[in-house]
Inverse folding.
């Protein structure tokens, strides 16, 4: 049994006690929904009260369900199944008019779906040779910040950047040298996309490597090994000059890097913190305030950070 949980974050305003006066943040479970399949990712559909649940059935087929948040809780309004198990998804490379969902699956296929007509994907590529572990998008809702693009990271060790206007050919590819076995890429994220020329991709790997790839210069701009596998990372904002990068890892730690300045030898200033008593699976910044982010732990815990 898999449970979809939706949480509310609020501040208490009661004047009844000293604790209330401190206005401590609270995370409250707002609604739960039981699903009978493995959920690998959930994403809000932009500018709506709807979200998608992405995963796979016990028989190995992929499933995507669309839910709507209403006065009576969460209602499933549609679903579609495909042959292969879905691993990850993003809306961030699509405009608000189309709101197309890009997905990666266990066979290494990148597909883009129109949720109004899911019979066939509107874009598909099979350049990855193994499971696509992670995906991110940029440029879908921003103007003057470059073309809409999708980035995928795979077990085959490659990080590929895609423009859906170019059929089956990545606009950038970063991977191991010929003859070298690549490390499993577990997380990717766009950043520094504040004009039509600048853009970077951060990637985290199973051996603890974090690399920032510069898409303008087509090289590695910065790299560091944090010794534990990097299962999640995110810039605080994609469409501003690089400011803050947070990485979530195995062995209970998060790392926060100040990317505004870079020492020629020591790299970025950083902080680390033990966030959970388990793997820190995810880090996400609050859209309304980039100083606030949440992490999720393998023991079922959530932590709110400022």
């Amino acid at each position: 049994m898999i449970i979809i949980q939706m949480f509310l974050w609020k501040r208490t305003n009661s004047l009844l006690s000293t604790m209330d006066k401190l206005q401590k943040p609270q995370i409250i479970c707002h609604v739960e929904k039981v699903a009978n399949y493995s959920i690998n990712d959930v994403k809000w559909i932009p500018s709506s009260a709807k979200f998608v649940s992405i995963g796979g059935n016990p028989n190995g087929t992929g499933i995507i369900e669309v839910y709507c948040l209403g006065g009576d809780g969460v209602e499933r309004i549609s679903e579609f199944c495909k042959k292969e198990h879905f691993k990850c998804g993003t809306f961030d490379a699509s405009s608000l008019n189309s709101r197309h969902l890009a997905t990666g699956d266990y066979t290494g296929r990148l597909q883009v779906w129109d949720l109004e007509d899911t019979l066939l994907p509107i874009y598909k590529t099979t350049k990855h040779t193994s499971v696509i572990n992670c995906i991110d998008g940029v440029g879908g809702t921003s103007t003057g910040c470059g073309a809409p693009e999708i980035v995928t990271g795979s077990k085959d060790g490659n990080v590929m950047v895609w423009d859906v206007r170019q059929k089956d050919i990545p606009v950038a590819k970063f991977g191991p040298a010929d003859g070298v076995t690549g490390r499993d890429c577990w997380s990717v994220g766009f950043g520094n996309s504040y004009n039509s020329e600048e853009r970077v991709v951060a990637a985290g790997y199973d051996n603890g490597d974090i690399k920032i790839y510069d898409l303008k210069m087509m090289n590695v701009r910065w790299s560091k090994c944090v010794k534990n596998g990097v299962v999640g990372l995110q810039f605080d904002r994609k469409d501003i000059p690089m400011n803050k990068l947070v990485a979530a890892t195995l062995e209970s730690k998060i790392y926060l890097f100040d990317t505004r300045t870079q020492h020629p030898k020591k790299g970025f200033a950083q902080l680390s913190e033990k966030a959970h008593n388990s793997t820190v699976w995810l880090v996400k910044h609050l859209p309304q305030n980039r100083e606030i982010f949440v992490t999720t732990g393998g023991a079922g815990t959530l932590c709110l950070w400022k």
User: Anything to note?
Assistant: Helices lie at 18-21.
